[in-house]
Write a structure and sequence with these properties.
Elements (H helix, E strand, L loop, with lengths): L1 H24 L4 H5 L12 H23 L3 H25 L3 H20 L1
Helix pairs in contact: 1-3, 1-5, 3-4, 4-5
Length: 121
């Protein structure tokens, strides 16, 4: 069942790579369609801020991908738990401060992956 946990970790990592892409490279195009509650006139002036956020999402993805590449089962599990917890904290904070939907889009998949890692890894 470790494969299920690994797949869920990989899916969370892919989600954060996608967020990286939107925030760093497609903020003024796809970003407008994704973040509809954000005023359209602010996309261009906030490009650098969004790119910075995208970079942080890339670090989360990198940590999760790293956890899938570590040879030691114990270390791989610990790294996965750490980065999934980071994603959960970010998702809960985003839900509390920006939009409740962030919990379901970002934190919940990480919660499910964390549960799988703790049970099956």
């Amino acid at each position: 069942m470790k494969i299920v946990a690994s797949v869920l970790v990989a899916l969370v990592a892919l989600e954060h790579l996608y967020i990286l892409w939107i925030e760093m490279f497609a903020w003024t195009t796809k970003g407008k369609k994704t973040f509809r509650s954000f005023p359209e006139h602010l996309f261009e002036p906030t490009k650098a801020l969004a790119a910075n956020q995208g970079l942080y999402n890339g670090f989360l993805a990198a940590g999760l991908i790293w956890s899938l590449c570590i040879g030691s089962e114990e270390w791989a599990r610990n790294v996965a738990v750490f980065f999934l917890m980071c994603v959960i904290v970010a998702g809960v904070y985003g839900a509390a401060t920006a939009s409740r939907s962030i919990f379901f889009k970002q934190a919940l998949p990480a919660v499910l992956a964390l549960g799988a890692v703790l049970i099956w890894w």
